[in-house]
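Q: what does this look like with 5-phosphoarabinonic acid bound?
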Amino acid sequence: MIEFKCDLGHLVDENTFNLKLEQARNAVTRAQEDDFGGWVDLPVKYDKEEFARIEKAAEKINGDSDYLVCIGIGGSYLGHRAVIEALGGERKRTKIIYAGNSLSSLQLNCALRELGDADFSINVISKSGTTTEPAVAFRVFKEKLIAKYGEEEAAKRIYATTDANKGALHDEAVAKGYEMFVVPDNIGGRYSVLTAVGLLAIATAGINIRLLMDGAEEERFALISNGGLAAEYAAVRNCLLDRHYDIEILANFEPQFASFNEWWKQLFGESEGKDGLGIFPASVVDSTDLHSMGQYIQEGRRNLFETFVQIDSDLSHAAVPAMNDNLDGLAYLEGKELDYINKKACEATKAAHKDGGVPVLEIKMPSLDERSLGGLIYFFEMSCALSGFVLGVNPFNQPGVEAYKNNMFKLLEKPGY
Ligand code: PA5
């Protein structure tokens, strides 16, 4: 189960906290009943037939492809990338290449170079089926796929994850006979990692998606009646915002979590940043970033708080070796596990930042595995939704994303703009 704790003493007034906690608790049903609240019961209500098809497709891909090109942007790629990287990367033959998450020709060419002449398949993921970035990348990789295998075989190597009934990608998939997976109507992109949106890539990477779902289900069980610790986290965030702490930094001590940070930033940023409100989500990977952002966090403007994500178990073994001399002055660390040193660095950082006037929140996952990560994802999804409702915004829409698109379409002279 995911743990949450903080000790903010005078910063959070008890009455205000209790009021916000009550609001957060009441928001669980609101989230569940929302038209976009499908993720709330997903861990106990997912489509088992589709789930089995995902596992089968992942097996096929590992049998015939060195690479799976995952094409998608925002909620259509951040979640699976976060899970795969947090758990240490691909464990089977097929490596994942991410594409269609920018309009950069440099990135595109880099991906094409990496692909070379290897065998590959494509998972194109777009709920709307019309997003420009993935649509452009899909054209490019599809052309390469057809050139390599011919139309018929190429169609067998394309997996389309999109709306069940509509959209350009849906229509193309039907016309060309691609295997299709569904982005449920009632789940928005950033809450969709535990649907086919994330699961095909995750399963292809050799990660046990049943355990991932089990972890989410256990966490749901802990949170579903009154929001549990997710409601507390949501309430604390809003109390801190009232005190003008309007930047939250997600901090962890594992570089493997860099993409998880990106997923978390999208989840909270897109859910809460609207109507002139919101906490700006930022992130660091320490101890790396202690040597870049550490100075600001320690002594800069006092409007930020920090949420540490910690793993409550020993991680892979690597100890500091003994040496005959002590020229580097490291004799005091000889024989000590690097993970132990890393955890001490985390402890030291929390204490230093607290002393520097940064409110510190702590979230603990029991271990680094599928089950815990499934739990952590669900915990953050629930916290985010509850926090958004307490803040007074709709945590499931993203109207602001359209602004750049409209300008870009005008500039590119898209018909109708
Ligand atoms: O969370 C969201 O809804 C967005 O980030 C979308 O996932 C993103 O804009 C991609 O949209 P689509 O899947 O329709 O291509």
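The chain has a mean pLDDT of 97. The beta strands are 3-6, 67-71, 95-99, 120-126, 158-162, 179-182, 247-252, 280-285, 304-311, 360-365.
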